[in-house]
Automatic annotation (TrEMBL):
PANTHER family: HTH-TYPE TRANSCRIPTIONAL REPRESSOR SCO4008 (PTHR30328:SF54), TRANSCRIPTIONAL REPRESSOR (PTHR30328). The lineage of its organism: Bacteria, Pseudomonadati, Pseudomonadota, Betaproteobacteria, Burkholderiales. This is TetR family transcriptional regulator. Residues 44-63 bind DNA. One of its GO terms (molecular function) is DNA binding. It holds the Pfam family TetR_C_29. Signal peptide: none annotated. SUPFAM superfamilies: Homeodomain-like (SSF46689), Tetracyclin repressor-like, C-terminal domain (SSF48498). Residues 21-81 form the HTH tetR-type domain. It comes from Roseateles chitinivorans.
């Protein structure tokens, strides 16, 4: 009898934990959409709780504050990108192909997840003060830079890439070209008089970025002069 009661108690706890996680996930999903649409200032607790079909008090219970929820949203989008990048897992035995895979992934990911770009734009408007309080954000960026480092090391070992490159700089070069193209696609399309959202335009940009990055990293590329 005692064992039966204990089993029921464990099962009951498991059900409650699953329900709590479902509520938390629902709030995060709703908050991601609301913050992406209205920004941090316009993304009210009321809008989020209504979208998540829950109560305001549940948001405070799980996340402590609006800022705590926003930080969790930022950690979530970084985590999903980090997880997606891990699935592409380029083989560093072929460093050129691996670098092309990373470039293709970055451009494609930003294009397919405009909410990621929108949320980062919002956080940049706030000068990164929210994400700076996250202990997880650095972990995700470290993973991405480490991947670039492994690719560059393999390229240097094979005599294909320069040995004076900083992985961080190559990473920034790749993400800046991918991010800017997506974040400014609407205004640039109007300014240039041509759509940057067509598959042809995206493919052409990917080829250009790939060629540019490979020209920078290749072993016969002249290093930049050091200035005082």
């Amino acid at each position: 009898m005692a064992q039966t009661k204990q089993t029921k108690a464990v099962r009951g706890t498991g059900v409650r934990e699953a329900a709590a996680q479902a509520t938390r996930d629902s709030i995060l999903k709703a908050a991601t959409k609301v913050f992406a649409r209205y920004g941090y200032d316009g993304g009210s607790i009321e809008k989020i709780s209504s979208s998540a079909k829950t109560h305001d008090r549940m948001i405070y219970y799980y996340f402590g504050s609006k800022e705590g929820l926003f930080i969790a949203v930022l950690e979530g989008i970084y985590h999903r990108m980090d997880r997606a990048e891990a699935t592409c897992a380029p083989d560093t035995a072929d460093p050129v192909a691996a670098l092309k895979t990373v470039i293709r992934f970055k451009i494609d990911y930003y294009r397919r997840h405009p909410e990621f770009v929108t949320l980062l734009n919002t956080e940049n408007l706030h000068k990164g003060k929210h994400v700076a309080k996250s202990e997880k954000a650095v972990e995700y960026s470290s993973t991405a830079v480490d991947l670039i480092r492994d690719i560059l090391d393999a390229g240097v070992a094979q005599g294909l890439f320069r040995a004076d490159l900083r992985p961080r700089d190559v990473y920034l070069l790749i993400v800046s070209t991918a991010y800017f193209f997506t974040s400014n696609r609407h205004t640039l399309s109007a300014f240039l008089g041509e759509s940057l959202e067509t598959p042809e335009a995206v493919a052409a940009w990917e080829r250009f970025v790939t060629d540019s990055v490979l020209r920078v990293v290749r072993a016969d590329a002249a290093p930049l002069p050091v200035t005082a």
